Amino acid sequence: MKILGFFGKGGTGKTTLTALILRELARRGDGGILAVDADANECLASLLGSGGTSNVSEMLQRYKRQREESPELTGLDIFQNLFDSLLMEGEQEGYDMLIMGRGEGSGCFCAINDLLQAVFEKTIEGDRYGYLLMDCEAGVEHIARKTSGEIHDAIIVTDASKVSLDTLRRIKDVAREVGTRIERYYVVANKTRPDMLEKVEKTAKDLGFKYLGAIPEDPNFTEVAYQGKTVFDLPDDSPAVVAAKQIVDRLLEG
Ligand SMILES: Nc1ncnc2c1ncn2[C@@H]1O[C@H](COP(=O)(O)OP(=O)(O)OP(=O)(O)O)[C@@H](O)[C@H]1O
Ligand SMILES: [Mg+2]
Description:
By secondary structure, this protein is of the alpha/beta class. 47% of the residues lie in helices and 15% in strands. It has a 7-stranded parallel β-sheet with strand order 3-2-4-1-5-6-7, sandwiched between helices. It holds the Pfam family CbiA.
């Protein structure tokens, strides 16, 4: 199983790239896909057309209630049932969706992080999924909180700005500091002027990251956003869709 986490500075295109890669993997159909929306804003779910399905935060509240109401059941049984129902609710277009939600309210994310870990471990054990795609919050927060514990591959989305490229190094540094076991780092340029791509590629190579290519500015996204449509509504020859195919080819090369 391939577990991919999407990282990068705010607004660079993490959610967009997660959705584009999911669309391409679903089209190829060579393994079940679990999409995890780990950003509290739940943008990935909307872009995939899975908005409104219930999330892990709500599940946690239900779990707490059911534990009080049914003391005869073990915590694990309750968790298992709730988790399975959560996954099935999100099923459509050849993938399952898991929405993390906002945490439990102010401050503490410990319980939801524990659940996230449990979800990962459970998912890795079975052969239900060939891919797990996790759309993370901007910056390095996710790695710092260790919620990305089981991610094998980090895909960092960037443009050619200094701030965005500086994030590449910081993500690697923070991952090392907190002992995250990320094995491979990939870089994808998004919405970047062609004459600036060389800088992105060089920065990636200098850090030992594999450069996967670039997604061009695609006017069809404006239409998708305006009409509240999904990534599956983009035409097959849309520039971003075509570029995503090549990126998936390079990603699966290793
Ligand atoms: N290749 C592209 N062509 C056109 N528009 C794009 C492209 N990539 C992203 N966008 C647009 O840029 C905006 C930001 O993209 P996106 O939400 O994917 O970024 P993000 O990194 O996930 O942001 P955040 O840090 O807020 O989670 C969106 O409106 C999206 O539609
Ligand atoms: Mg996003």
